[in-house]
């Protein structure tokens, strides 16, 4: 009975497709619980990625097997893509229900996240469970001075296996993300998210060329879902949204262009990133207002505190709740809501950073963009607090904190430059070496320095004023009730 109530609560928190077999649903629920639940973390801190990985692989094995939930699956037709050269081929799942396809997608993406976190982790060859080791602990030709294993209370000082005795503990992320991209039956949003996840992984691994190619692939995916067969909304060479085509922009287009701009910004290619950010900001400002108001359409959420989750679980034991409706495919034009306003603030923050770092002549513009981003983030956050709107709130909080920190760093740098300028004038000899105009120039430099010192004070006051937004006070747990 206890296990039944527990699994029913898991099902409520992590719904699984109704047309899957019992054990496939059980495995996916436990995989998600292990990955996302605070209660499943090791010492309440670390996610047990090895355990989550075992669950995800078991789910995928059943879904792709004719003996279980993979009946009538057909291999996808080769498309001549990069995945074909790697020997990674997906399936044709278009005949399966939307629930089945969504669950399969979640399992593949979950396995991809596990693979990213288990990169560089290995285990003894042939073992499917048991202890895992970091590659830095394994002695071999590439690691002649391995890092010793930490002392273990049960095992003592263990001797690790050699490089010839181990293999990767988990397949590479590439395998799972590419399988999403080569499977026929996923919608545009699902394929786009897989492409961007893989591109981000390539960036992390320093595979700049592969990341670049994957972002271009992602742009093609986003444009493939444009309504009416529209094309050329994005210049796929630069990632810039075409001027005059803002009315045809979809959520997927905005998402991939922003990600591509961030990719360039992280690589230091500010000249490529800035035009993309500006084009995305222009497109977002042209979004139509939501017919539901600035908050957008809201769904009623059941209480999830105290005894309520367990009471709902007892109810669900008798009557199974319907599977959640599918999320939007991303092929729709978004409305301008508070959530979208938060995205605009994030773009303004990026633009301010880039302008300030570009050249000395653009520093004032960068500061102006950063100030405006802080003003906008604060205004949006106060409205969210008043309307009790949670969607996009965490993103807006991050933008406000980042904007305040950037503003502070920029202002301090300007104050240091003003002080340096004052010292240079004091040590100089003025015009023609006669000291002409020196006093006036020193006074101007002092006023400039005082201006930035005063701005630093104002920034600190602003940080204190926005503490209720950036560090909200959370109510104490009230026990069972």
TrEMBL record:
Chain spans, region Disordered: 130-168
Domain of life assignment: Eukaryota
Protein name: Uncharacterized protein
